[in-house]
Specification:
The protein contains six helices and five strands. It has a five-stranded parallel sheet, sandwiched between helices. Helix content is about 35%, strand content about 15%. It has one domain (about 20-165): Response regulator (Rossmann fold), CATH 3.40.50.2300. It is globular, with a radius of gyration of 19 Å. By secondary structure, it is of the alpha/beta class.
Length: about 160
Amino acid sequence: MTLKRRSTDIEPPEFSTVHRPRVLVEEQDGAIRSSYVNLLRDAGFEAVGCGGPEDQEGARCSLAIGQARCPLVKGQGCDAAERADVIFFSFRLADERNRNILKALKRLNPKTPIVVELPKPQSFRYQDVLRGVHLAYAPVTGHSLTKAILDAWEAPDPILESLRK
């Protein structure tokens, strides 16, 4: 026995085939972070910003505890990083704590591509921490930032992609 569809039957919903990449912007300076987030949103991404351990008394972190407000400082996972499709990391790598945060992001989110902004001459200085990430050389422009995010998002594997270069 076959049931006939009535004209009043509702078709099941279909998801859009277009997925807007979710980008977590890691930048300590609030004004710069806000401009990156707005730029990425204007380019069609879903973007949120985080200022790291010193950001607004940990308001963005559900695991915020005491001075080390960023859970990554304590080696714990970051909710926003776990939901992101791409992480844009703009913290200064001269600070050892920031290098440790980047290492924690890589360790805890191995399948999430990470784009790191830094001046080109520093790429040799921090080779150990930059292995497996995508680079966006400072100063970034709107075009270079969106291109780096898209390239990272579309790359088959962040480690393999970095080895091809």
